[in-house]
Amino acid sequence: MPTPIDATKSALRAQVIAARDAVDEGERARKSRAICDRLKAHAEEVAAGRKGLTVTAFRAMGSEVDVSGFVRWALEAGWRAAYPCMLKRSEATALDVPGLPVMRFRYVTAAQLDDEVDAFFKHPMKSYASADPLLAESPLCEPEAVDLAVVPMVAFDDRRFRLGYGGGCYDRFLPRLDSTAHIAGVAFEEQRVDCVPTDEHDVQLPRIFTA
Global pTM? Predict the structure, then answer.
């Protein structure tokens, strides 16, 4: 059953997405590049000269921050990159909540990022079966392997609480990361609000990069 806080979150979600959509496309691209630069600087600190680290990112939907430039840089720098993959609810395990979306991360290569190559991450809202041929070239990325998680959001506040799209996927994913993993939310300043309404399961982010 929806609760009053669910209704508040839903109204805030619609309000902030409208504000984000209203930002000029060119300005969003400029801001995205600035955020990618901040991610690169942070990733260099995380890596401290090490190779083969793993970053999770996401494919921008609509007017979201575009972090593809950062992902390409990470791959060129010797990192591994993984994107979220939504699975059919029949694929749920004990780690999932019955009736809620099932999200896992899968590795992608630089070749798969090419616009000419179809891949699961180009359809962020589509749910796949684990045995789908589109997933065959993208091995599963276990949460414990993640060194840096880049997290999308709809809204955020000065306490670093985020408002997502309502599925709770990241609220379930982030606590499964190793204690040494770094987490960075990304958003435009237009997505900042006075206070994100929170439930006990909502995760406070250690850092949020904005522009």
Answer: 0.94
